[in-house]
Amino acid sequence: MIATKILLASSFIGLHYEGGAPFMFPLLFLLLINSGIIIYAFIVTLQGKPLNAVWIETIRRIATLAAAWGAWSTLIGLLFAFSALETSPEPVPFPVICGGLKVALLTVLYGLIIFCVSYVAYIILKIMGRKLL
Question: Among the four residues 7, 59, 111, 117, which has the most C-beta atoms within 10 Å?
Answer without folding.
Answer: 111
